[in-house]
Amino acid sequence: MNPRRKKRLSIALVIIIGLGTMTGLVLYALKQNIDLFYTPTQLIEGLGEDKVKPEIGQRLRIGGLVMPGTVKRNMEDLKVRFVLSDDGGGLVTLEYEGILPDLFREGQGIVAQGVLKSANVITATEVLAKHDEEYMPPEVAEAIKGIKHMKPEYGNETK
User: Is pTM, for the whole model, over 0.85?
Assistant: First the structure.
C-alpha cells in the first residue's frame, strides 16, 4: 500500500472512530435525561409487558387525580403531601415543597415531575395542574378513564 492511501485510510478510521464515540456519548447523555411517564398503577405494578418498575432515585413524571381529603400542608413552610390515584386502584404519595399552581385542588388531574423516593413515594420538583375544565394531558386522560372529575367549588363570585 502506498503512503498516500495509507494516510487517507488512517484519516478515515480516525473520523469513523470519532463519530462513533461522539454518537455513543450523546446517546448515553440522553438516556440519563429521559423522564418516563407513569400512572400510579403503572408505578406500583410495573410498566409494559415485562412489568418494569422504576428504580429508587430515578427521575420520572406521574399523572393522576389528587385524592379528596389527602392534601396535608405543613404550617411552617411550603411542604405539601398528597395522594394520587387512577382507575387501576394504585395510590402514590407525592411530597412537594413550593407554591402549588392556582388550579391545584382535590379531585384535580395533575402531572408531577420528580424523583422516586421509595416504592410509592415521589419527591416532586414540579407540579402542573390542568388549565381548564375540559383539558387533561392525553397520557393522564387515557390512564384514568372512568374517573369523574370533581367540579371546582367557587365562592360567592359575581360576574
Answer: no
